[in-house]
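Box 3.1 — From sequence to structure: DUF2795 domain-containing protein
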Amino acid sequence: MMRVNTVQLQNSLNEVSYPLSKQDLVRYAEEKGIDERVLRALKQLPSKEYQTLADVSKAISESE
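Predicted structure (token representation):
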């Protein structure tokens, strides 16, 4: 699987206001038309509230 890098993630989610649920992250990504790789990674995250971009990044790296 292709890894999502942190810069790509930051660029994709730079306008998000936290905390945010997984569902809200995925919805935001779909509305913004962000990179397919990032979207796939977000869809595989555990369903929970994410407090920061670092939280999201950490969860993505753990799920790869």
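Summary of the box: The chain has one domain: 18-63.
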